[in-house]
Amino acid sequence: MGIAVRRRNRRVGRSSDFINIPKPLKAGLESTIAANRLVLADPRGEIPEEDLLRFYEKYVEPAFWRWWESRGRKR
């Protein structure tokens, strides 16, 4: 089962932000992230970044925008 939370973005240095992940998620030493408008992350870093990005671009991003627009919202 997933979780849904809202987190404040925090500034780190000049060019980066970070988001704290909720405690129930298990984190490894590194995370793998694929992002555009949405962020898809593997907090344990078990999925190679190329695979995560390919999945994100093929399935997550297109499905999200179809769903978003079906609710009457425009990009």
Q: Bin the strand percentage.
A: 15-25%
The strand order across the widest sheet is 1-2
Domain count:
1
What is the makeup of the main sheet? 2 strands, antiparallel
**Gap from first CA to last CA:** 29 Å
Mean pLDDT comes to 91
Q: How many helix segments?
A: 1
Q: Would you identify the regions where 5 or more consecutive residues have pLDDT less than 50?
A: none
* Backbone structural class: alpha+beta
Q: Which shape, going by the Cα principal axes? A: globular
Helical coverage, percent range: 25-40%
Helices and strands, in order, run as EEEEH
Tally of strands = 4
Task: Please state the CA-atom Rg, rounded to the nearest Å.
Answer: 14 Å
Question: Topology of this protein?
Answer:
Layout (H helix, E strand, L loop, with lengths): L9 E3 L3 E3 L13 E4 L3 E4 L6 H22 L5
Antiparallel strand pairs: 1-2, 3-4
Question: How would you characterize the overall build of this protein?
Answer:
It is a single chain. This protein is of the alpha+beta class and 75 residues long. It has one domain (10-70). 29% of the residues lie in helices and 19% in strands. The chain is built from 1 helix and 4 strands; from the N terminus they run ββββα.
Question: Brief description of this entry?
Answer:
It is built from one helix and four strands, in the order ββββα. It has one helix at 49-70, and strands at residues 10-12, 16-18, 32-35, 39-42. The protein has a two-stranded antiparallel ribbon with strand order 1-2. Strands 3-4 form a two-stranded antiparallel sheet.
